[in-house]
Amino acid sequence: MRRRGWVLAIVTWLYVGWSLLPVLVAIQFSFNDGRSRSSWQGFSTRWYWGTSGSVAEDPGLRLALTNTVELALFTTLIATPLGVALALGLVRWRGRTSRAANGLMLLPLATPEIVMGSALFLVFTNLYTLIPLGRTAQLLGHVTFSVSYVVVIVRARLASVGEEYETAARDLGASPVQALRTVLLPLLTPAIVAGALIVFASSMDDFVISAFLSSDASSVTVPIRLYSSVRNAPTPALNALATVLLLGSAIALVLAWLVLRRRRGSVGSGDALREMASIDM
Amino acid sequence: MTALDQRPDLAPAATDQRRRRARGLGGALWPLLATPGTLWLLAFFVLPFYAIAAVAFGYRDPIFGSTVPEWDPRYWSFDVFLDVLNRSLFGDLRAVFLRTLVFVVVALALCMLAGYPVAYYLARFAGRRRGLLLALILAPWWINYLTRMLAWLSLLQDDGYVNKVLMAFNIVRAPVSWLSGNPYTVVLALVYGYVPFFIVPLFATLDRIDERLLDASHDLGSGRVGTFLRVTLPLSAPGLATATVVTALPMFGDYYTNTLVSGSPTTSMIGNEIELYLLGGSRKDVGASLVLLLSALLMAMMAYYLISSLRSDRPAS
Question: What would the pLDDT profile of B121-151 be if each residue is shown by its tens digit?
Fold first, then answer.
């Protein structure tokens, strides 16, 4: 038993190294003091700020960064309330229509991005022609794939809260809206915050939907920029851009994990991680 | 803890009361809350799917040669779709479909080979390091996919670290050209990209296996290999199935991995053809038909998975 555990441990750690080392090397080269992305010439932050081609100075890179953050922010602001309301409705309202809506909500989670991207691209270019391709179309697309994340997270929390608290509030004379506002929503806050943070991170990381719905240079996001500049003489500024993106989603997801973990109290941190793993498809 | 929790006999009565009240304002509140989200999904998820069909079954403008969608199903024309189907089964697109299938199947097999030991170790032996390892294994989920590919692109350059190491150990004499239409690179890149998505569902299943079953198997005289083959492996089959579906769905629709690490038509997959026809050219109807074909293929796979997982659930319950 112990010997097999030992062999598996080596395999596992090799795997972890293989999966993370290349990224660490890429991050390292964002601090390179030369133009090369493969030979080390000393430490410098010149690709982050200070020189003309850096993330902070290059207009193209800066635009990609602001586009990405704006898109993620507005996506979160729209998708979170939509998803919370939908989760509440789906869990507490029982009926045939509710079951159909539930199935509809789950579909985006099982749809490959390229199919969803093509569908959105075709509907915006052929039917919703009032909305041209670009940042608005990207926002609408991002909200569409984000709503289901919020629903799944909030619904899991709703199921564990049960109906007793609202029932008690109702018995004590609260109206349905009061019960919702003063009892249910405060109980759901951790799930709502975690859902919002996960939406923010997944919107920042999305490439396919953004790419299918982008129009020109004005709607370039960081992932699109990474994709398109790889093949034409990239500088370490590209690595710096990728590092900034990584930091952004890391912060959002660590916060989400902390929020999910805190409400679990004594239960181990592994569960919050696993819960996030089951959501973050 | 509320009083209701300690007195379970009260809970059903309260639920009854709630149900009676649900006919009033409370009953209307829930559908009302579900409405905006449902409408959003109808407008930006269901209708866009219909748009794929409308474009695939539309017609071509006789003057401009562009694709015009047909929204009324009574006037749908299936000529283009049938032509694409024909090309996919017998013509020039057949190679693309077959290549996609081979790439995905080989990548999935490699995912299983690499992912199973990792998930198994994490579920059974990781002990104190479990939280740390789980976090490290989950890390690629939130590191942008393109960043991860980009990282390999630098390593795989002709003068990159991979070739330097291979030449230092005399495994190859001249630098290997990894990034110009090398199918092995594409498959390995797919494995690298998607194996984290394979490990997690598998880990969740392995983690739930009751250790007493393994002890029982040992007590009844099975060796380690026997226990693994006759107890652990069959019990992890649902997890393997879930992991396979979760990884296969995005792999079948992947086009960016291929563009980044190869960029050559000799390795192009269905996703690349879809991107080419939809975003690149004027034949949107061909692109839309390909999306329909791909969706049908994936839906058949999902249906098979759902039916077989329902069937395997039944004896247990």
Answer: 999 888 788 889 988 998 888 899 999 999 9
Q: Which residue in this structure is represented by tokens 């490959």? A: A112
Lowest mean pLDDT segment, chosen from A215-224, B81-90, B174-183: B174-183
- Within 8 A of A4 by CB-CB distance, chain B residues are 224
ipTM of the complex: 0.90
Closest-CA distance, B71 to chain A, in angstroms, reads 10
State the Cα–Cα distance between residues A54 and A240, nearest whole angstrom: 8
| Two tokens, residue A13 | 């750690």
CA distance B44 to B182: 38
Question: Which DSSP letter does residue B181 get?
Answer: T
Taking only Cα atoms into account, the Rg of chain B, rounded to an integer number of angstroms, comes to: 26
Cβ atoms of A258 and A79 closer than 8 Å: no
Distance CA B70, CA B313 (A): 43
What is the end-to-end Cα distance of chain A in Å, rounded? Answer: 34
| Continuous segment of H or E residues that includes residue B51 | helix B47-56
CB-based contact, A267 to chain B, within 8 Å: no
DSSP code, position B282: S
* Alpha helices per DSSP H over chain A: 2-29, 59-92, 96-110, 113-126, 135-161, 164-171, 176-179, 185-205, 208-213, 222-229, 236-264, 269-279
